[in-house]
Amino acid sequence: MSEALRQKKIVVVGAGWAGLGATYHLAKQGYQVTLLEAGSYPGGLVAGWKTKGGRSTEAGIHGFWYPYRNIFALINELGINPFTTWTRSSQYSPIGLEAESPIFQDLPRLPTPLGTFVYTQFQRLPLVDRLSALPLLYAVIDFDNSDAAWRRYDFVTARELFKQFGVSQRLYKESFEPMLLVGLFAPGEQCSAAATLGMLYFFILAHQADFDVVWCRGTVGEKIFRPWTEKIEQAGGKILTNRRVTDLISDSNNQITGVVCGDEVFTADAAIFAVGINGMKKIVSGSPVLQSRAEFRNLSNLGGIDVLATRLWFDRKINIPRPSNACFGFDSTTGWTFFDLNALHDEYKDEPETVVEVDFYHANQFIALEDKEIISIVHNYLTTCVPAFREAKVIDSSVIRLPQAVTHFAPGSYSHMLPAKTSFSNLFMSGDWIINRHGSWSQEKAYVTGLEAANLAIEYLQEGVPANILPVEEDEGHIQVARRINQTVREVGKSVLPNFWLP
């Protein structure tokens, strides 16, 4: 390790998956890395803490899906074992159980998307409605995650997309929109068709096993981020909490030279932002340096979605058929999930009571309610899905309001999102809303973009070894062939037909 590298200072802003990923790799390379976190704990949205009664809680439950190749590689490197085994999931409406998903990797592998179609156990959805999704396969093939594909589909709403391709109203209402409400966190008329296709493909349609999921056996903060931050500090990284960034310092050479937190200034040879849209907009609003650039001013066109995370402790043991469950139809614009923490978390496995996590997305109509009202609604909804909850009493609870907490992939938002490189030569971006071509989503994408930002800093400073980023599993052969044919037809069409509207 060179003495010049030891003296290079990198400041990372935001201690979620992206920020921790960038910090860890850069610290291992020998850089002086300082990670600034506005909150009291590293972890961003998945930081865990204790209630007044000493019970563990966190800002919602986050799954780890089969395609999370880079996160699973990180877990192996850290030498920890935080996950459950692969679990089955259920879907409920006010009528009752609607669908159950198997563990897809345990079943004979069929060409995509036949496995998802054949093996998912729908209780009421007629076959004729399910078959109405077949024409949508063209859009799945046409959307190849390229910049051109994003621009073609981003100004179309998901609702328009499904209607255009002949998806039946019942299939949309009972299958696709519930996926949107808990996957993109908004109803179809408020979701970009491009983001919809990207999310559905990554989690469900690319390969049969993609929907298989494991869960953390406790809070992510305790099980993953705590040992991870210890490794970062052992590697020489410095993690500072309660540091809210207020501005940057730049010089005449188009370079960032410092990151400002109130009265503190952290000198930087390079800087990486790893915060959500809402946090980034707050930083931009108070930063004359960032406001001087149109790319950052345009972030005001982006938005977030409200999340409500509740945890309830009941006075008796209740049999919940599946540990993870998604629900739709209870509120027209809100999706919610509930989890049996006795089955998922080590802390509650032998408890005589039942512990349930219930999270609401696009929860703006609930945020202003009193805790008591929210708990009553949650209890009633749980009773609709699992009648045994009716006789149970809530003996403790936690309500966490997270306004504008998750990314809103609204129609037209792609043109305002930022790439990893910015107009400042040594300032790089990361997070689940950053434009990249990896193809991943959610926590995996955040982590991958953190590694990509670290690699850009290494390239800029010309010292260190880049992080190895595992690509998503390549498309199956028939999808590759279909995409090549589609691209050829599209190129021929461009040469002989006028371009009336979309690229």
Automatic annotation (TrEMBL):
Matches recorded under Pfam families: Amino_oxidase
Species per Swiss-Prot/TrEMBL record: Mastigocoleus testarum BC008
Domain Amine oxidase stretches: 18-456
GO molecular function: oxidoreductase activity
Name by which UniProt lists this protein: Amine oxidase
